[in-house]
Amino acid sequence: MSPYGAKTGSSGRDGTRITHTWESGIYARRHRSGRAPPRTTSRIRWASTIRIPGNFRSSATLKAFGATADLCPMRRRACRGPAGAVSSAAMLLALAACGSDPAPAPLPSPVGEAVQAKVPAEGDRAGAPALNHAPEIHSVRFEPEKPGTGETVRAVVDASDADGDSIFLRYEWTLGDERLDIDVPKLVLTGASRGQRIGLRVTASDGRNENNAVELSSEVRNLPPKLTKLTIEPPDGVLVGVRLVVRPEARDPDGDRVSFRYEWSVNGRPAIADGATLDTSKLSRRDKVRVVVFASDGEDESEGLASPELLVVNAPPHVVSRPGPPGADGVFRYQVKAEDPDGDGQNLQFQLVSPPEGMKIDAATGEITWQPAPGQTGTWSVTVLVNDLEGGAGRQIFEVSAGTATAAPAAVDPDAKPERGDDRQRSRP
């Protein structure tokens, strides 16, 4: 039998079994822990120990259980080890090294037992340790596929090892022409520029063998602007006839210039508007208004940012007339006229606040009459209130003088600052 062939034996006395491997005249032992020698070409299974026969000569070196024996044609050296014994497996290895094929006849042993050598079964050969395989990388991808400035890109690696060994991955990143000194599966793109190249080289190892590296690259993509705030004017509600204006705020991660697009709706239906401004003159009380704003850098557009639903509230009426001079009979007459943006003109009610003595107003029509009494002189401030019965009220303030022989035409007070529904005027009867 070839010195590299496999031989097996058995002994009925000792039930302990171990596995030995042999290659190029060198013997190694496989422990029960399962740790294999670096390489193997054949194996021998044995369970007993024997002493070297006195007439045996060989030129092999045996190693087993800490016992060694050097044999050559010229001399026999006694075995060095426990009780001067070597394993019967070592004995067979020595025979194989000399080119001898042990006969099926029993070999002598110290206790007079017979040891039979035989060729191992196919199942025994199948248990020989296999060569180590390098891990295999099946795929590498970026997540997200195209990250943007300031975002975190992760490397997702699918790898396996045919031997079931642990896999160690090494990551080599580049950003543009710069190699980054990091070995982690993720990269934060702080300060990266749009269009800059992202490179990654991944290598897998099981501690003994290393696979061929896999490389992957991508680009830093453009990021759309991000809307941060919407401001609606006027802030106290939507009034019919008062323009509604939205003022958006946004920032762009790439520092690009930002433009805006507006989508207005009234009661859920698209409304015609002039960009950021909506004309409310055709709206009605209790209408619902909403605007959605989009920001763009010329390449990408942001998601829309919607305003809260804005309710068109009741608008107060306002006085549109001015007082005039008294009549030739000295009586002050003034027909107050008012308008209501919500169309409540038919339901308006009028009243005076702290009028001079004798001045009256018709609550339904708004007509004021005043006949100054004899001795009634001076100037009075007159306030007219107009109520639309829906909670909205407007007012007009004017001055009237008495005790003069001649009346002056009505004039607007140049110092007055009228507010919504508040008109200040002066009259001199």
Give structural notes.
- The structure is a single chain.
- The termini are far apart.
- The chain is rod-shaped, with a radius of gyration of 53 Å.
- The chain has two helices and 35 strands.
- Helix content is 3%, strand content 41%.
- The longest helix is centred in the N-terminal third of the chain and has 10 residues.
- Among the domains are: 85 residues, Immunoglobulin-like (Sandwich); 87 residues, Immunoglobulin-like; 85 residues, Immunoglobulin-like (Sandwich), CATH 2.60.40.10.
- It is mainly beta and 429 residues long.
- The strands form eleven sheets. Strands 18, 20, 21, 23, 24 and 25 form a six-stranded mixed β-sheet that branches.
How would you summarize what this structure contains?
This protein is mainly beta and 429 residues long.
Features:
single chain, 41% strand, Ig-like_fold, mainly beta, 3% helix, Cadherin repeat domain-containing protein, disordered N terminus, Immunoglobulin-like, 6-stranded mixed β-sheet
- Gross morphology: rod-shaped
**CATH 2nd-level architecture of the domain at 226-312:** Sandwich
Low-confidence stretches: 1-125, 404-422
CATH class of the domain at 226-312: Mainly Beta
Helix content: under 10%
Q: Could you give the distance between the termini?
A: 144 Å
Q: In CATH terms, what is the fold-level topology of the domain at 226-312?
A: Immunoglobulin-like
Mean pLDDT: 73
- Give the C-alpha Rg: 53 Å
Structural class: mainly beta
Major sheet attributes? 6 strands, mixed
Question: How many individual helices?
Answer: 2
Strand segment tally: 35
Strand content bin: 35-45%
GO molecular function, one term: calcium ion binding
Organism: Eiseniibacteriota bacterium
Protein name: Cadherin repeat domain-containing protein
Biased composition (Basic and acidic residues): 414-429
